[in-house]
Structures are given as structure tokens and as C-alpha cells.
Amino acid sequence: MDLNFLPFEQPVAELEAKIDELRHVGDDNEINIAEEIAHLETKSRALTQQIFSALTPWQISQLSRHPQRPYFLDYVRRVFDDFQELHGDRAFADDPAIVGGLARLDGRPVMIIGHQKGRDTKEKIVRNFGMPRPEGYRKALRLMQMAERFRLPIFTFIDTPGAYPGVGAEERGQSEAIARNLQVMAGLRVPIIVTVTGEGGSGGALAIGVGDRLVMLQYSTYSVISPEGCASILWKSAEKAQLAAEAMAITSDRLYELDLVDVVVPEPLGGAHRDVDTMAAMLKKVLIECAAELDPIPLPQLLESRYEALRGYGRFKD
Amino acid sequence: MSWFEKLIPSRIRTEANSKRAVPEGLWHKCPGCGAVLYRAELERNLEVCPKCNYHNRIGARRRLDLFLDDEPREEIGSDLESVDPLRFKDLKKYKDRLSQAQKLTSEKEALVVMRGQVQQVGCVAAAFEFSFMGGSMGSVVGERFVRGVDAALQDDLAMVCFSASGGARMQESLFSLLQMAKTSAALGRLRERGLPFISVMTDPTMGGVSASLAMLGDINIAEPNALIGFAGPRVIEQTVREKLPEGFQRSEFLLEHGALDQICDRRDLRERIADLVAMLTGRPRP
């Protein structure tokens, strides 16, 4: 089994392996098999298209956490210029699970903040698998309040399994750190554009996710608890994660239908990791458009509509 | 029957399993110290054990009844009812879980909000009903809370909330997650206006409720020995794979780590809060 492909993509993986093999044969024997390769490539694309046209929520949830999924810094390099990282919460530590700093978007200075997962084992541990501790949220808060002072728009990027459930995190007030961010972000006097790029895991995601626009990449997810967590509580078995993923409406298309998401950015065929440059270019375009929409809105009106949107969340019978 | 019991003449033998003829609920065995307490005495002590100070959980309506003056009282948002926006079904339908919880608690939802007075100081008071689906916060809980805040804003009142919740309600998925942002934003308005918010955390206050409205008090108070935290102790134990320290995530632990202003015995809460609100709003001692 090819680990670069998820279980449901294995037929494509097999084809791709065949294509690779043929390429090697071609190198060795100088036989012209370009035609055969082209044929297989078309077939592989068609197969990918077929598989991706009918993904289940569970498959999308796996895609959102694909080991090769582009992470925050992969987008930073492609979407923004002149990034300068700013570290630390000025109180306890610097949390590498959240990265933030100043950068330029299309020439304009902005503040960017995002969850950061690690690619290899060593980095995964340093980044704590993208699970922030309170100091991460407090760093984010510090940077957002700085952005407010200097009137810079804020772009945040969500990709986390959730806030870290650890002893130290509880000692240092994980709950308070998240709650404070929610309250302050609701009233920050600059535009905030939130993008879910991968896994939107619960309060740990929302803590940098209150803003004026919510953008989701096509195969990202956003939910109150992971499908595994939900399944182990409600179905009493983590194995029912598939059912939980269906039931919870965690995918961008369902959330768009429910009117909880403003923009869904389509991903390249096979997912963002198959063509990061194209994905980043599309995301950049959307972010510039969102900023352009928000720019002319007078501040009191911006704050009022942000509050009204927050106030309006929820479905009930009156 | 053991050999020894067989030796005992039948007229002095007592049935091993027979319960003594005591009316149901006249006595209460304290889960804290094991003392057998007279029910009426426990009630007089607001469900706090007079021997060991163990705070038994109490329902939302009882809570507000103990806290607010008898008059005036006006319930806020009582007509709001949950819908099932995702047609959620796990082992049971969400709709069925709702009606079951309604039957069990005689409440329509997991939060009760009232406008009233505490020792003649006006306030809006909210209390979570933990027996209603673990006091979980869904759309109605969030909306009732925010309507409470709206009422406080409208009449320049303090807001008091007694939390008791396992967190967000999974059956409403992202709608419930967003209640965290909604309630926190509303409390932001209260803060801007300089109206006090007193948050009282009772056993247990966890997850999405703890990580939103409960931790945002101008003054954060907890009842003794309440479990308060973001992640549940079991989840943390599984993650860090070590035994958790004694007293972890209990009120005393939070006070020590700076998350709380005070721990307060339930029997003193009413008076304390009334005076805190009075001091914050420049009034004489009630």
C-alpha cells in the first residue's frame, strides 16, 4: 500500500505505480512508450475524478488530515511576501503549534496567524501535532491586538485537531485563553478573515476563528469534536467515526448549505496536496477578494455586522 | 444461609436483605463523608453536607430559587425550543434524547434564565441544568444566555451565571461550537458597557462552556471541589499517559493556579454576590 495515498485512493496509487515503472523501463531501454504512459495518465486522471466526485464525509475528513496536506507555512510562502515571524506570548513561552507574524499580501502589510503541524516526526513533536497550549492562543491574541493598534487586517488559518489536552495546558488556563480570544476577536477594530485549510477541530480552532469572513478549502472540515471523539462518546466506539462524520455535517459543502461558511475554495483534482501551487494561487485570489470586500465598509458597520452574524448563530423554534 | 445463621433460632433470625421500613428519601448518605443525613437538614443547608461540606449538585430552578429574591422574577426565553437542524442520529435520535431529557427534568432546555433581584439589587441570573443532556450548550442554551445579556444591557443590570455543563452539544455540531463565540461576544458588549458579569462555576464546568462564557467573569467564583477544565480528565490521562495529580482540575487547583477569584460555600453565595455587584456598581451594602 502506498502511504502517499489514502485507502480509498489505492486504485489510483496502483495506476501511478505502473506509470512510474514504465518510465523507468523507458529510461533503460530507450523504447518509446510515451503513448502508453499518456494513456495510463489519462486513465489515472479519470479514475481520480471518478473517486473524488463522490467522496464521503469520512473520506473528506481523512483528506483534511492527509499526511501530505499543505500546512500553514506552505501557504505563507506562496500567498504572502516578506513574512517575518513574531514569537512568544510575553508571559510564559513561545508555542510552535501556532505561528504568527507580519507579512505582505499583494503589497499590503497584514498580520497572519495559523496553526502549524509538523511534517516529519521530529517536527510533529516540536509543533505538538498542531495542538496549541494556552501560550499559543495568548501569542495569537497579542499579535491580533498589535494588528488592531497598527490598523492591519488579520488573516488566520485553521488546521488543528484541537487545543492540547495536557496537564500544563490546564494549569495555565486553556479555557480562559480560548474564551478570551473569542471575546476579544468579536470586537477587534480591524477586518478579520478566517480560512480553514485542513482540520477545524473544535474550540482549539474557533479560538483563532472569529471574524468577518469564513473561508473553507473544499476538503477541509470544521466541527465541534473529531469524528473519532464523537463516535467514542455517542456510539461508545471510535470505530464508528465514519457514522459520526456523516451525522455531524463537518464538510465545506454541508456547512455552506447551512449558511455557516461564506466561501468554499475548490481544490485541485485529488486534493490540495496534489498541486500546492495552484491551491495557494486560488486561495490568494479569494483572500484578496475578501479583503477588498471588507475594506470599504466603515468600522462601526463592520463591527455591527460581525456581531450580528455571531448573534445569529443557532437554529431554534421561537 | 451460612452454618452460623442456621444455628440461630428462627424467631431471632432477621432477613439478610430485608430493607428497614424507612420512607424513601428521608435519609441521605453523603457521597463525600458517608454520613447519614436527615433529608430536611440537608435541604436547610442547600444540599451541602453539614458534616464535610460536600456540595451536592442541584438543578437550575432550585439554584435560581435559592439565589433570587422571591419577587420580582421573570423568566427569559422560556418559549425557545430546540430543533434538530442536522436530523442527528447516533444510537438514538437527537429528537428522542431531547424529549427524554424534557421528561426527566421538566425543563425544555439545559439553561434557565431569569430577570430578578438579589437582596434588592437587580440582576439577570442564568443557571445550567446538568441533568438535561449534561447541561450541554446547543442553540437554545446560547440564545437564552444572550437574551439574558440583552436584558441586562437594556435595563443596566448585572449578569450572574451558574455553570454546570459537560460542554458543547455534539448533536448540533458546528451550531453548538459557534455558541461559544456567540455568548462570548455578547459578554463583550456587557463588558464595554461596564456592567458586571459574575461567573459561578459549579460541578462540573467543562469543555465549550468553560472555554467561553464561564471563564469570562469579571469575577470568577467556584463552589468547593467542583471539576472545572477544558479537556476531561480521562482524555488528558489518555493523551499524557500518566496518572493525574491529586485534586487536578478541582476548584482549589484552579484557585491556586490563578484562574479563580474565590471559592465560595453555596450557603454564602447569595450574600457575597449581592455585595460584589453592589460594590462594582457603586451601591451601599445590601
Automatic annotation (TrEMBL), chain A:
Keyword Lipid metabolism recorded: yes
Enzymatic reactions: N(6)-carboxybiotinyl-L-lysyl-[protein] + acetyl-CoA = N(6)-biotinyl-L-lysyl-[protein] + malonyl-CoA
Pfam family, one: ACCA
EC class name: transferase
Keywords: ATP-binding, Cytoplasm, Fatty acid biosynthesis, Fatty acid metabolism, Ligase, Lipid biosynthesis, Lipid metabolism, Nucleotide-binding, Transferase
An example Gene Ontology biological process: fatty acid biosynthetic process
MF (Gene Ontology): acetyl-CoA carboxylase activity; ATP binding; carboxyl- or carbamoyltransferase activity
Annotated ranges, domain CoA carboxyltransferase C-terminal: 39-293
EC numbers on record: 2.1.3.15
Gene Ontology cellular component annotations, sorted alphabetically: acetyl-CoA carboxylase complex
Lipid biosynthesis as UniProt keyword: yes
Main location: cytoplasm
Subcellular compartments: Cytoplasm
Domain of life: Bacteria
Pathway the protein takes part in: Lipid metabolism; malonyl-CoA biosynthesis; malonyl-CoA from acetyl-CoA: step 1/1
Family, as annotated: Belongs to the AccA family.
Assembly and interaction partners: Acetyl-CoA carboxylase is a heterohexamer composed of biotin carboxyl carrier protein (AccB), biotin carboxylase (AccC) and two subunits each of ACCase subunit alpha (AccA) and ACCase subunit beta (AccD).
Function comment: Component of the acetyl coenzyme A carboxylase (ACC) complex. First, biotin carboxylase catalyzes the carboxylation of biotin on its carrier protein (BCCP) and then the CO(2) group is transferred by the carboxyltransferase to acetyl-CoA to form malonyl-CoA.
Protein name: Acetyl-coenzyme A carboxylase carboxyl transferase subunit alpha
Organism: Thiohalocapsa marina
Lineage of the species this protein comes from: Bacteria, Pseudomonadati, Pseudomonadota, Gammaproteobacteria, Chromatiales
Gene: accA
From TrEMBL, chain B:
InterPro entries for the chain: AcCoA_carboxyl_beta (IPR034733), Acetyl_CoA_COase_Trfase_b_su (IPR000438), ClpP/crotonase-like_dom_sf (IPR029045), COA_CT_N (IPR011762), Znf-ACC (IPR041010)
Pfam families: Carboxyl_trans, Zn_ribbon_ACC
Subcellular location(s) per record: Cytoplasm
GO molecular function list: acetyl-CoA carboxylase activity; ATP binding; carboxyl- or carbamoyltransferase activity; zinc ion binding
Binding site for Zn(2+): C30, C33, C49, C52
Keywords per UniProt: ATP-binding, Cytoplasm, Fatty acid biosynthesis, Fatty acid metabolism, Ligase, Lipid biosynthesis, Lipid metabolism, Metal-binding, Nucleotide-binding, Transferase, Zinc, Zinc-finger
EC number per UniProt: 2.1.3.15
SUPFAM superfamilies in the cross-refs: ClpP/crotonase (SSF52096)
Zinc finger (C4-type): 30-52
Pathway: Lipid metabolism; malonyl-CoA biosynthesis; malonyl-CoA from acetyl-CoA: step 1/1
Record bears the keyword Signal: no
GO cellular component terms attached to this protein's record: acetate CoA-transferase complex
Annotated cofactor note: Binds 1 zinc ion per subunit.
Domain CoA carboxyltransferase N-terminal: from-to ranges: 26-286
Catalytic activity: N(6)-carboxybiotinyl-L-lysyl-[protein] + acetyl-CoA = N(6)-biotinyl-L-lysyl-[protein] + malonyl-CoA
One BP annotation, GO: malonyl-CoA biosynthetic process
Cofactor: Zn(2+)
Function: Component of the acetyl coenzyme A carboxylase (ACC) complex. Biotin carboxylase (BC) catalyzes the carboxylation of biotin on its carrier protein (BCCP) and then the CO(2) group is transferred by the transcarboxylase to acetyl-CoA to form malonyl-CoA.
NCBIfam families the record matches: accD
Quaternary state and interactors: Acetyl-CoA carboxylase is a heterohexamer composed of biotin carboxyl carrier protein (AccB), biotin carboxylase (AccC) and two subunits each of ACCase subunit alpha (AccA) and ACCase subunit beta (AccD).
Stated name of the protein: Acetyl-coenzyme A carboxylase carboxyl transferase subunit beta
Source organism of the structure: Thiohalocapsa marina
Designated gene of the protein: accD
